[in-house]
Amino acid sequence: MPRWILHKDKRPMSLKGWWSSINDASTWASYEDARQAGKGDGVGFVLNGDGIVCIDLDDCVLDGVISDEAQNLINSFPKTFVELSPSRRGLHLWGLGNVGAGRRFERDGLKIEVYGTGRYLTVTGRTLIKAPLAELQLEDLVG
User: Fold this and answer.
1) Are 6 and 40 contacting, i.e. CB atoms less than 8 angstroms apart?
2) pTM value?
């Protein structure tokens, strides 16, 4: 999907080096082109409301060990793609679902953000679970 961008200091950046917009598809690229651009701090994926969602868990990995609360949340979903965040202290769970507006909340000691549109998230390639994107039933999580 040509929804890849670069990022610098967590700000979206186009392959040409100027700041990008998550609302302007003309500043997005293919994964291969973004990966090979050699600019910025890495790549990110734009969520545009087509059903691809990301659950961003902050501060749930300590010295490479996933907290019990985060592991329980991961285990509550079907097997899906999970990677370490850029800080290596958080996780990104990627899947398919319906989120509507993004949400940020705490539950069971976890700092949780859930997004499906109007955002981009960094993609690190530090994969913990390599699996196709699974259908995530998010109603119980986001209420």
Assistant:
1) yes
2) 0.92
